[in-house]
Amino acid sequence: MGTKFKLKQKKQVGKDAALALLKRMLLIRRFEETLARLFADSEVKGFVHLSIGQEACPTGVCAHLTNDDYITSTHRGHGHLIGKGGDIKLAMAELFGKTEGYCKGRGGSMHVAAFDLGILGANGIVGAGLVLATGSGFSAKYQNNDRVTACFFGDGASNQGTFHEAANLASVWKLPILFVCENNGWAEFSPQSSHQKIEKVSTRAVGYGMPGVTVDGDDIEAVYSATADAVAWIRKGNGPILLECLTHRWEGHYAGDPQPYRDQDELQAITQHCPIERFKKQLIERKTITAAEFEALSVEVESEIGEAVEFGRQGTDPNPQDFMSYIYAD
Amino acid sequence: MSMGFNTIAGAISQAITEEMRRDANVVLIGEDVTTGIFGVTAGLVDEFGTDRFCDTPISENAIIGCAVGAAMTGMRPIAEIMFQDFLTCCMDPIVNQAAKMSYMSGGTFSVPMVVRSPGGAGLGAGPQHSQSLASWFMGVPGLKVVSPSSPIDAKGLLKSAIRDNNPVIFLENKLLYFESGEVPDDIDFTIPLGQASVLREGDDVTIVAVSGMVPRALRVADELGAEGVSVEIVDPRTLYPLDTETILQSVKKTGRLVTAEEGVMTCGVGAELAALIAEKAYDCLDGPIVRVGTPHVNYAYNQEMEWATIPDEQDLVRAVKKAIGQE
Ligand SMILES: Cc1ncc(C[n+]2csc(CCOP(=O)(O)OP(=O)(O)O)c2C)c(N)n1
């Protein structure tokens, strides 16, 4: 079967990379927290799924992708978008349903897509991104353009037929796809133990003849290192890899979900997994950054988020009568 | 008959409870049904236990396929698909398996199952969580299609659907879940499939309204009544088999037809009704048939744009005026 893919010891990142990763995670966190408030205040409507606590996975994975690479995303997709370099102003405008938004107000939270950044869209259909990824994988291989697709999906989605069909097809055709399972232990109101009899989704890779590895998905350096190796391996034409990131869903399934089904003690203690706090602490201990540098970064992020919210709020409402546009391409 | 008061969600929950008590072969499966995303089935697991009331993994194909196989082997499963939009993820077991099994087996097998699924726009949920797909299933021989608009109908029809020996697609409406009304407590109360209900009698125009459009049509009938236009409202309740007799009778009386569905009009319920009247009651028409529904578009996330495409009272009033030549 040619080269084997093995997970190596994770590497520590240097200062510049560390600050960039921290900033991206902070952007996702503040974006989501702000959104939660806007939703509670009914400024943002519809179905909103937050990724608070899960910032390390999209950040660490997308750090190894260029603007030309592709991602497919999920209903919980804001982190993927921001991770891939999405403009938070355009994202916020979309959530406000404005013309300036990524989808001109048509798509909203569950459908944010950005052509220029290779973001093939968040998705309201669980498991749909998995099969779309085989298509961007196919085109990249056919066009011989070296592009990789990172396909994000949840533990719950790995029970869809689409997961199994996509994994098999990608493997048989050696498609350049990094399947990224964000295993947050929950699918809506169902704990993982109730919906699958495996603990590690990565073990499913065996059945499709592709490498499968699991990392601590709240440890940004673990995600970052594993992805570096995986993407390099995939770019060499070795075929797909399944990377599972173990993480935690801090919030309800959707914004406003009171979560009666969750263990309150577990929820109380959930912040101990915080990928941002953990990384920050290590970086300061290692003297890679100072506390003051982190503070400065927080302030910077805070102001960018503030600007994005204002941008979204001040956006132009689409003309409601313009609903025929974009149903078909010109 | 002793009456209680309940919402549509409550009436559905009651129907499921009564039928599960009545017949041990009735089971319910679906994603997070023990909690219930809209709360419809919340709490029922306490009585029936997880052997009969089963949360499934996110696997629509397997949910429906499992229901078909179980129905073929002696059970009466109710399968829930969380949103009508996700019915697209399990079209094979619905269309090629459930619908055709009786026929393909020369009547050897029957598939007594119900697929419950809510549809409808208006929640800002975007293009993949808002569709009303009733008409898709009307064109599949072997399926029955039910779409109630009131608590009493929801209860009576769901009970009949569960007792029916055929696969029944039971289409609910998210915005209607909390509409309330009188509901009989009698456990033997059912409403036969295939019977329309005349919700309001009138002489000038017939509105045949489906699901979420029924309350809108009733409001419009009041409004137009005050202006001296007498509107008859027929709710088919079952879309296949369609109670063509009641509909024809009404249109023959009023001489005018407006159809009202929330889904996309192209090849929709209204198209079928218009064809029915054109074929069977052409001579009785005193004006053009007018369809109300969603134009050939998707539902936007932006709520104003979404509501610009969802058919509402204004569209109905306009349609009635056109039908009666008062444009
Ligand atoms: C085809 C389909 N089935 C069901 C749903 C409803 N739904 C939305 S998210 C979700 C849970 C997804 O769980 P997982 O894949 O683990 O992702 P997470 O929510 O944990 O990020 C479900 C059942 C859907 N959107 N699409």
Automatic annotation (TrEMBL), chain A:
Keyword field: Oxidoreductase, Pyruvate, Thiamine pyrophosphate
Record's signal peptide: none
Gene3D superfamilies in the cross-refs: 3.40.50.970
Pfam family, one: E1_dh
Dehydrogenase E1 component domain location: 24-319
Name under which the protein is recorded: Pyruvate dehydrogenase E1 component alpha subunit
GO annotation, biological process: pyruvate decarboxylation to acetyl-CoA
Provenance organism: Desulforhopalus singaporensis
One GO MF term: pyruvate dehydrogenase (acetyl-transferring) activity
Known cofactor(s): thiamine diphosphate
TrEMBL record, chain B:
CDD domains on file: TPP_PYR_E1-PDHc-beta_like
Swiss-Prot/TrEMBL cofactor(s): thiamine diphosphate
UniProt keyword list: Oxidoreductase, Pyruvate, Thiamine pyrophosphate
Transketolase-like pyrimidine-binding domain sequence ranges: 6-179
InterPro entries linked to this entry: THDP-binding, Transketo_C/PFOR_II, Transketolase-like_Pyr-bd, Transketolase_C
Statement: the UniProt record of this protein carries the keyword Cytoplasm: no
The keyword Oxidoreductase is annotated on this UniProt entry: yes
SMART domains, A to Z: Transket_pyr
Sample GO molecular function, one term: oxidoreductase activity
The protein's name in its UniProt record: Pyruvate dehydrogenase E1 component beta subunit
Lineage: Bacteria, Pseudomonadati, Thermodesulfobacteriota, Desulfobulbia, Desulfobulbales
